[in-house]
């Protein structure tokens, strides 16, 4: 580990705040409602793109999957303050500060932690734009967090009557999530994310990070955030992050936060082969073992994403590309992926 670098973060309000990267992640920032569920000691995470509104069978399979965290993904903020699921670009889940999405989905999400279940934590992923996409999510968070700005149709700032506060309040009170996962891949404004995080903490949730590049940005987000607010980092180890190594990121971030590698599973982009660095269960296990050699404190990993799991089965990948795996059902593939993460930690 590199020598501790003592630095200070300059906040917009004009005062200095010490680096929090080495503060313990157990400080309670909750001031609203029940305390959020912590990450599991061995945290096995499934990103849940492809399950809005979903079906009862898929949610029942998740409950018995062995995964401990389900991240509802992906969700996007639009210019009028509406929030959309990436699974449904026509009808919002939040409109005019109210939840207007599928009531069946809310019931399915609530069922995830109802015993018997291996799922102990639910997060929601706020995804931003990729290359050459129109503005969304983090562009608007950057524009709206400052109460001194005027944006037509939007209540700016992070106060209790603000547009951003109402969105996050619905995440907590209607959807029932424990944490908001930040997947900013374009804007990279650390002050706006830290301010959003302060509000998330006040609402009784945690914040997690989902980076694939720009370690200095993510380090600054950690630096600006209150101790205990951020309690996990999910590191993209595919596509643009294909060369990422969790141990190296831990050193660069200079943090004691747990870092979990995310793997793109076969079936991604409706392809049985290794597109965008997607991996078979055997590949994932081997990578987990490799990562743990220089990061012995690694205590979990994650799979992106359930939509690709279903694509794998739909395309009969076990037959079309035997090297991709052996699963012939969604439940079997989910189990194989969970085992690849867990066995890589043993």
Automatic annotation (TrEMBL):
Residues 1-21 form the signal peptide. InterPro entries: GH. It comes from the Bacteria. The keyword Signal applies. Keywords: Signal. This is Uncharacterized protein. It comes from Chitinophaga agri. The lineage of its organism: Bacteria, Pseudomonadati, Bacteroidota, Chitinophagia, Chitinophagales.
